[in-house]
Amino acid sequence: MKSILTHIGIIAATLFVLSGCSDFLDEKPQGNTGTTENFYKNKEDIEYALTAAYANLQNGSMYKEAMVLMTDVRSDDLGSFANTGGNAGREYSIKIFTAQSDNQIFRNVWQKTYETIYRCNNVVAHIDVVNDSKLKLQYEAEARFIRALCYFNIIRFWGDAPLILQPMTASEVAQCERNKVTDIYTAIETDLLFASDINNLSKKFSGKSLGRASSLAAKALLGKVYLQEKKWQDAKKVLGELINTDNVGTHALLPDITDVFSTAPVQGSSAADFKNYTGWSPQAMNKEILFEVLFNKDISGEGRNALTYYANQADLNEEFKLSNIAKCIYAEGDRRADLMRSMKGTNTDNNLLVKYADIQSSLGEFGYHTPVLRWSDVLLMYAEACNEVAFDSSATSPALLALNEVRMRSYAAGAYTSTELSDQDSFRDAVFLERRLEFPMEMQRWFDLLRSGKAINEIAKIGIIIDKDDLLYPIPNSEVVLRNDPVKFPQNPGY
């Protein structure tokens, strides 16, 4: 059996046959080659290694495809699945909660995520070769942000997992046990506290550096981590600092939700305006986005087709369809409903969500990017944290103000009032509803269901019965066999 290092232990010299869609991802390697022990000689080598970590996020087993499958497709946002056999059967089994540990998708996601962690570990371990003190801090902070993001996904998918924070040999990795979620959370928090320090990482990047993680993105992710841990007070503090102090003049909601997803928005346009979307193309970066994974449709194999594929494979839940007013959860006039319509792309065999509409390149690729952290997410996380610390729906409540800022931007019916949100439970429900309205197909819903404790009940509403064992994915069988130690490396219950 191949060791896990076949997949995660790729030496630095092989990391650089890469291309990306932002300029810093287009860097080509020069200079040193060889093993990880002798490769890292200067800041250029560290930059190449860091670029390799970013490039991994674009992989089909990460944000290009698999993250959509393991979050959005898994959730109650999507209903029926068109293709239940062949290769699609592996995806279908994930949708209906019958997938087992031998599903190749799990193995690929696990391996690619740990490969990305491995690349980040190499940056951190060899950072002292960078003589420029400012760049040294920046590169380390970026690597630690990516590493934290990877571990955050791992524990939300699998729970306990190996915690590897330095480069390891194949034999060392094979001896790694499953560390407790609490220990991994501690490591994630440590990385994000470092990355969110304005002295270590810039508040934003521009020009050729668009797409890099920033200190504000790190702080937003730290707030999300605290929420998932139910550390409400910590989340309120961090997100409050981000909103009220750190962010001033940097990020904000755009006036129209459609502006977030298009480089050519038409202010106040109706759904009909999207039917022929000449000139409509996905944004690259904008003021609302703190971090996203970029894709380039003009480079073969680098575009993103997952959302096109799943728009054809899985039907949107009836609750998102304006054609079914009786069930639709969007209020009349809510601009977010316009974005959730299906439409034909330039290839008439493909359906697209307006949210990610794009004209195919001559290579058959789409260029829509993947928002990971948006400002509306920050505001709704802050509202959630404030409410969990102490219910307050008064007119001046920071929680209510944050919630209504997102709600009112959508052109929906109107702001929530204290009368409507009369207790903590109703406020909590309002926040989670707003999150569902705001983030469909943005890899948020499944994690929100886990945090809210409502996954079992909500999935039942689309006709799939699950229990608590289904809330985690099975550890890939290849990893269990590699260790062959049911005490130190057990399979998740139910598999």
Helical amount: 40-55%
Task: Using the alpha-carbon principal axes, give the shape.
Answer: globular
Average predicted local confidence, pLDDT: 86
What is Rg? Answer: 22 Å
Strand share of the residues?
under 5%
By DSSP (H or I, 4+ residues per run), the number of helices equals 19
Number of strands: 6
Measured between the Cα atoms of the first and last residue, the distance is 21 Å
Q: Could you give the order of the helices and strands?
A: HHHHEHHHHHHHEHEHEEEHHHHHH
CATH top level of the domain at 1-212 and 471-490 is Mainly Alpha
Largest sheet: 2 strands, antiparallel
Give structural notes.
With 495 residues, this protein is mainly α. Among the domains are: 1-212 and 471-490, Alpha Horseshoe (Serine Threonine Protein Phosphatase 5, Tetratricopeptide repeat), CATH 1.25.40; 257-287 and 295-368, no CATH class. Helix content is 43%, strand content 5%. The protein has helices spanning 5-8, 36-39, 43-57, 66-73, 88-95, 104-125, 133-158, 170-174, 181-195, 215-229, 232-246, 306-313, 335-339, 375-389, 398-409, 424-438, 445-452, 455-460, 477-483; strands at residues 78-81, 289-293, 314-316, 342-344, 351-353, 370-374. The strands form three sheets. A two-stranded antiparallel ribbon has the order 1-3. Strands 2-6 form a two-stranded antiparallel sheet. Strand 4 and strand 5 (351-353) form a beta hairpin. Helix 7 packs antiparallel against helix 9. The two termini are 21 Å apart. Residues 1-22, 27-34 and 265-272 have low confidence and may be disordered.
